[in-house]
Amino acid sequence: MSERKIIGVDMGGTKIHTSLILGKEIIFECILDTPAKESEKVVLDRLIKAIEQVYQPGCEGIGIGVPSVVDWKEGIVYDVVAIPSWKEVHVKKILEDHFKIPVYVNNDSNCFALGENFFGKGIDAANFVGVTIGTGLGSGIIIENKLYQGVNTGAGEIGSISYKDGIIEQYCASEFFISRGLDGEELYLKAKKGDPEALEIFKDYGKNLSEVVKIVLYAYDPETIILGGSISNAYEFFIDAVWQGLQDFMFPVELKKLKIEKSELKNSAVLGAAALVYNFNLETA
How many domains does the chain have? Predict the structure, then answer.
């Protein structure tokens, strides 16, 4: 990977995190609040300001990850739940007109997978799925070292699949804890101290997450599944239950080869967004 200046942007409903990246290193960054309840233009102006804070001459491209559906070819963002005014925003065109450099936009789960592919545990895995478990549940799919995203960047939306009396996301993301009147961070701290009740709750969570792993295996048969997002910090407390829940998987030979790992990539959101630039260059090479 060449030593090129790239800007990575993690565009969320509460904050906009921008970083100037040289090679694999973040050399400067900025975090601004997202005016999520304001108009489309006000949010765009804040995004531009956040990018300007880290922009330097010689930047070769901007990559942006957003928590929504994206027309990745045209760089159009649709219906961002956390930013109600963003119904159809032509982010790519607006930013390219302003900064005069290429801009690439994609779903944040796809960015997570690309970040692992270029900077993290996916470097040595040609076929893997990155699963983000936090406020929601999403996944990014790498097949033969290429991102598979579908027509509308909607491939891998496993969290929306029906499960029990709801959908997967209700049982494998933060709602699993919230619906029980629990604070995930507090529960994690209790588990670290060996609290039996906290450990049992994470065990139940792991059983649910094993269903996600089964879906990934049946659909994509990857060599590795990489877990990211805030809940993955509790990996040690639920991973045994995940493996136990896989005992009825129909093709046990796949389990012998499978790795389920926790991401160790710091600043994965902005690095993954920056990887959109590298990924485009590979696809057009």
Answer: 2
- What's the pLDDT tens digit per position in 84-116? 999 999 999 999 999 999 999 999 999 999 999
Range of the domain at 172: 121-262
pTM: 0.90
Amino acid at residue number 85: S
CA distance 187 to 7: 36
Q: Is residue 256 part of a domain?
A: yes
The 103-107 sheet, strands edge to edge:
25-33, 15-22, 5-11, 61-66, 103-107
For residue 3, give Cα distances in angstroms to 25, 59, 86, 101, 165: 9, 11, 34, 17, 50
Nearest to 242 by CA among 159, 183, 172: 172
pLDDT higher than threshold 60 for residue 283: no
By the 8 A CB rule, do 113 and 69 touch? no
Cα(221)–Cα(215) distance, integer angstroms: 9
CATH of the domain at 182: 3.30.420.40
Q: Residue 169 and residue 5: Cα distance in Å, rounded?
A: 36
| 233, 164: one domain | yes
**Same domain flag for 44 and 14:** yes
41 is a domain residue: yes
Residue 4: pLDDT band by 50, 70, 90 thresholds?
Answer: confident
Neighbour count for residue 218 (Cβ, 10 Å): 12
Mean pLDDT of the chain: 94
Residue at 184 is within a domain: yes
SS3 state at 141: strand
| Mean per-residue pLDDT, 121-134 | 95
Same domain, 177 and 254: yes
